[in-house]
Design a protein that fits this description.
Blueprint: H1 10-23, E1 28-35, E2 41-47, E3 55-59, H2 67-82, H3 86-94, E4 96-100, H4 105-113, H5 171-183, E5 187-195, E6 199-202, H6 214-232, E7 237-240, H7 241-244, H8 252-258, E8 264-270, H9 288-309
Parallel strand pairs: 3-4, 3-5, 5-8, 6-7
Antiparallel strand pairs: 1-2, 2-4, 6-8
Helix pairs in contact: 2-9, 6-9
The structure holds N~2~-sulfamoyl-L-arginine and zinc ion.
Zinc ion binds next to loops.
Family: Belongs to the peptidase M14 family.
Protein name: Zinc carboxypeptidase A 1
Keywords: Carboxypeptidase, Disulfide bond, Hydrolase, Metal-binding, Metalloprotease, Protease, Secreted, Signal, Zinc
Length: about 300
């Protein structure tokens, strides 16, 4: 069984999800929203303990090598189900959670079994190369340059930020898009889990023009980062992607905000660098639980602050 002391395979995670559904059929639903290029299941788990809750969407491990992002998705779900902390129970009871722990299973398995540093999907894109960056393959401002002419994505198939031949060229991103097109109205918050930079980024990546609810994103993000910091002293930087990190176009969280108008959208860049060692993407499994605890605490801060601001 899973205990968050190691990183698990896609199949192990999916078996765990299916077991949860069997154990808690009243409030856990597992749905296959599509299949990956290599035919793996894209599983989404829903936790809903009450009718008419608003919902939060979590997309994990869209980047193959960012293993902590998938592990944290399942950690959060497990805590929502089993924690006795009243603040966590409040999140579980009063929010519906839609979680895709492994959004890029082909890439994740390739990173586990062949090339630890793999980032993209695994579809053939030229005679030489495989893979599209799924976090450059969403439709909103796909392959769009910023004010300085920076695309924040690549047209070159062998690049690690290859945007694909067209928006949603990948079955993995298309499956998420199909789901969001049917369900966007349920969601107050879209969360895309990544590593590693200790950041909470919000739209946009393709322009430094500020979004209409910039201040809400900043204040709610800062409340989340403050709760995160209180756990273990890890300081996240909160800010808009283009200013805080770099130019990036066609990313999922901008699509969720800009196209589907989900009002709050964050990209988490979790542990990997800094005080706890410069591990980068290859974060040792003993950090799964500490990282999970602080991210979970941040969600408490995020939901409480967003209630306050209405
Ligand atoms: O480049 C990315 O896709 C993300 N960083 S990573 O090192 N995990 O690859 C950042 C995406 C920024 N997101 C938004 N524009 N919201
Ligand atoms: Zn990433």
């Amino acid at each position: 069984d899973m205990d968050w002391t190691s990183y698990y395979s896609t199949v192990e995670i999916h078996v765990w999800l299916d077991k949860l559904q069997q154990t808690f059929p009243q409030y856990i639903t597992v749905e296959e929203i599509g299949k990956s290029f290599e035919g793996r299941s894209l599983k989404l788990v829903k936790l809903s303990k009450k009718q008419n809750n608003r919902a939060i969407f979590i997309e994990g491990n869209i980047h193959a090598r960012e293993w902590i992002s998938g592990a944290t998705s399942t950690y959060v779900l497990n805590e929502l189900l089993f924690s006795s902390d009243p603040e966590i129970q409040d999140l579980a009871n009063n929010v519906d959670w839609y979680i895709i722990p492994i959004s890029n299973p082909d890439g994740y398995e390739f990173s586990r079994n062949s090339n630890r540093n793999w980032r993209k999907t695994r579809s053939p894109v030229s005679t030489l190369c495989n893979g599209v960056d799924p976090n450059r393959n969403f439709g909103f401002n796909w392959l769009t340059a910023d004010e300085s002419g920076n695309l924040g994505a690549s047209r070159l198939p062998c690049s690690d930020t290859f945007a694909g031949s067209r928006p949603f060229s990948e079955p993995e991103t298309q499956a998420i898009e199909n789901f969001l097109s049917q369900n966007y109205a349920k969601f107050d918050i879209y969360l895309s889990f990544h590593s590693f930079a200790h950041m909470m980024l919000f739209p946009f990546g393709h322009t430094s023009v500020r979004i209409p609810n910039f201040n809400d994103h900043l204040n709610i993000g800062q409340a989340a980062a403050d709760r995160l910091f209180a756990v273990d002293g890890v300081r996240y930087t909160v800010g808009p992607t283009r200013e805080t990190l770099y130019a990036a176009s066609g990313v999922s969280s901008d699509h969720a905000y800009g196209h589907h108008r989900i009002p709050l959208s964050y990209t988490y860049e979790m542990r990997g660098n800094g005080d706890y060692g410069n591990h980068g993407f290859v974060l040792p499994p003993e950090f799964i639980i500490p990282n999970g605890k602080e991210v979970l605490a941040s969600l408490v801060g995020m939901v409480q602050k967003s209630r306050q601001l209405g």
